[in-house]
Amino acid sequence: MKNQYFADVKDYTKYCILRQFLDIPKIIYWMLTKEDSEIDRRMLNYLQSQHNAHLDRKLWDHLSTCLSNGWRNVSYIEGWLGDVVHYEKQPIDDWAKRKAISNEVISMAGKDQIVFLDPDNGYEVPYCPEGRSRSSKYVYKCEITRLLKKSATIILFQHYQMGQAVDDMIQNFSEQFKGQYRFAVRTSYVVYYFLSNSDLNWAIQRLAIKENDQTHTRLRLLC
User: Fold this and answer.
1) Which of 8, 59, 60, 182 could form a disulfide bond with 200, CB atoms 3.0-4.6 angstroms apart?
2) How far out from the chain centre does Cα 126 lie?
3) Is residue 8 part of a domain?
4) DSSP class of residue 75?
5) CB–CB of 76/70 below 8 Å?
6) Which residue segment(s) compose the domain that 79 sits in?
7) Residue 126: φ, ψ to 5°
8) Could you tell me the CATH number of the domain that includes residue 13?
9) Which residues contact 106 (CB under 8 A, 6 or more apart)?
10) Does some domain include residue 142?
């Protein structure tokens, strides 16, 4: 996550999902990384059409106001996502220091709590192991495993990966966490993985998910 992308379409769908669980305690680990010069204006086009407000009108209005005023920082979503602990320490490539940061998040997690992990890119990739340059952009299996041991429900942000079909990406991830992977919510740009040691039928019902014959489920979110 980078503050410069706050209020883009990926943020909108992200918050639409989280606002389905306003009554459930949550930890949001923003995994903020340093800003760069890249800004994709296309990711803001959803705010140009009132049609896209149907998912969450109040949220759409709020993000539109933020963008109009140049408020591009995750602090402007505080108070909109229910009972939340916002954890904003930046992940870093130094693995010893990274583990200390991860330990703080893990120590806060508990049963019947949602932990939302919001990395730049998503789940670890083979070419970027723990401690390697740019590893701050990923969440690692060891971190997820420890959170699952706390009986927390994990929602993980995942960018589509270049050169890989989305169905294959989801299938590969689900095989990494057999028995704990529950379902994935797809939008046109990203996937949200849901993992838990418990049944998550309650989450599926709240998200109004339409089941299909694939290895994931699909949320009715805008393209």
Assistant:
1) 182
2) 21
3) yes
4) G
5) no
6) 3-206
7) -60, -35
8) 3.40.50
9) 143, 146, 147, 150
10) yes
Q: Which amino acid is at 55?
A: L
138-139/84-87 β-pairing: unpaired
Structure-token pair, residue 147: 């959170």
Nearest Cα residue to 38 out of 117, 118, 94, 120: 120
d(CA 92, CA 48): 36
Neighbours of 73 (CB within 10 A): 14
d(CA 132, CA 94): 8
Q: What are phi and psi of 184, to 5 degrees?
A: -130, 145
pLDDT tens, residue by residue, 58-98: 999 999 999 999 898 899 999 999 999 999 888 889 999 99
Where would I find the beta strands (DSSP E) of 114-179? 114-117, 122-123, 138-139, 153-159
Total number of domains constituting the chain: 1
User: Which tops the pLDDT comparison, 146 or 33?
Assistant: 146
